Amino acid sequence: MKGTVLLLFLFMTSILNAQSDSNVVLVIHGGAGTILKKNMTPEKEKAYKAKLEEALNAGYEVLKNNGSSVDAVQAAINIMEDSPLFNAGKGAVYTNKETQEMDASIMRGNDKNAGAVAGVQTIKNPINAARAVMEKSEHVLLTADGAEEFAAKCELEIVDTSYFRSDVRLRQLKRVQEKEKTVLDHDGDQGEVDSSEDEFNIDYIEDKKFGTVGAVALDQNGDLAAGTSTGGMTNKRYNRIGDSPIIGAGTYADNQTCGVSCTGHGEYFIRNVVAYDVSAIMNYKGVSLDTAANEVIDKQTEFGGTGGLIALDKDGNVAMPFNTAGMYRGYVKKDGSIYIGIYGEE
Amino acid sequence: MKGTVLLLFLFMTSILNAQSDSNVVLVIHGGAGTILKKNMTPEKEKAYKAKLEEALNAGYEVLKNNGSSVDAVQAAINIMEDSPLFNAGKGAVYTNKETQEMDASIMRGNDKNAGAVAGVQTIKNPINAARAVMEKSEHVLLTADGAEEFAAKCELEIVDTSYFRSDVRLRQLKRVQEKEKTVLDHDGDQGEVDSSEDEFNIDYIEDKKFGTVGAVALDQNGDLAAGTSTGGMTNKRYNRIGDSPIIGAGTYADNQTCGVSCTGHGEYFIRNVVAYDVSAIMNYKGVSLDTAANEVIDKQTEFGGTGGLIALDKDGNVAMPFNTAGMYRGYVKKDGSIYIGIYGEE
After folding, report:
1. Structural domains in chain A?
2. Does the reported pTM lie above 0.80?
3. Which of A54, B72, B73, B340 could form a disulfide with B215 if both were Cys (CB 3.0 to 4.6 A apart)?
């Protein structure tokens, strides 16, 4: 009897807590790179901010209604995948073969289960396929045709490859190819270009390696989740895979520490195991999320790896360090306040 | 002048050190799993030990002659890839589609450069392709046809897929498929079977997830390198990729800490970023290689991830923890002494 009363008390307390204390946080990114105010028009800036806000609202709506952090991450990323503004899903960049090969991964912090897909060409929302791998298979990483076959079995939305084609991204490919023909050092910065030619001007970001999207959420159960989705690198060859579908490199989540999603020059993020490194530093050195996240990006800067990350810890603290000129980013904090940023100093 | 004399002195000292102090170490594994003495015949045991010794000698020969740790890792792994005894190269297991899809990765500790291939079907020695990716591309991970195209351009040896076919491995596939038909819980242990039917008896290891090979070396320059090569999981579907080609999960090397190569249930090794975790624990907690490596495998045991790893630090210390019944393993230490082990207690 005593036990039942205690259980009832705990149950009521937990319900009251859940209702009164909206302890949820969502943080997102839409890629880091040479994003400079001087290359922006007010229209472009407005379009990006509106889409980031839409993604934040979609994810936050899930969290407010007691949805899971996995649902929130997926909802936020789906908005960005469905937009041509970002290098993921609909806006994925072109490979050397004028196709799109997309990668995505997701991880949840309560049991550290994870799922990922790489090199998929017909799945409308790759993050949904990553989630299906996590929840409906014993595997973590499925690739290419096999991943598509699995996604189809899971009844995810499959689209014709033409869905991902766009003139803007194709012109971006041609410019990168032209540049690579004339530049011996393929690793060099692509610099800035005037791209006023394009109606929507989304490709003034000449960095061929950037534009990945990601989200990290903390739900009312205190569960963290992180996800990342990308079209990879413009003009990529040889079925190259970057950090986005690699658990530990592009995505990581552990309720004991934090959730992380990265964006940047994937090869460097793989070599330094960036997403997990934030968690490891917090865990083993006992420092704050902010200290750990900044240490990791400082290490990347020293290493020559450009990019950034978003991170969220179990207490709802947010960090969004990057070593590029800008990073599309935003968050909704516990108190419901929204922040959206694009450039370096805001 | 003073400077020149000092430089000359340092140069001579370094040459003398290199010649007098053979500071090199090589450690290898040929997979972890349900390897029990009672299932072994003296012939089988002899065959495995002889092949492990051959691999150790091949790598040690490179190191003794002032070769690089990368060369040594490749030489040792090539011996195991070319043998039908191990689940890598020639002995790679069958996928659900009765093909072989092989993965490999390599990383060097001096600049933390890395290369990997996944899902390749025609490259005789996948570790050589991983090395070519590291040295001849700006990428880290190439997959499937693209990786094969790249390997061919690098003039690596390409073979017909029939090279990887074997009756023994095909029977292993059929048994796993039969078992999966009758067992609902695909994650359960496969138990032990009597496989005296097979002449060479290599498939008494019924664990469908094991048999990966790997090597870690320390050369006379003090440079570490680590590599891993595998056929993956018997009966794998959907172009599944495990931990072996994932830098951070299956392979890691950093001159400041250690080199690591893993073997085991890949999905668990990916989720816990096992190879990098050994390095992170050493680095951030300031503990020894042995302490870090054992902490990581203890964590895997608690997590439910079966397998093992080999690790080697910059001072030549070796650790080879595993939580399975056995792991094919061996090392040559600084003083030239060779150790070869198979079971748990030796």
Report:
1. 22-343 (3.60.20.30)
2. yes
3. B73
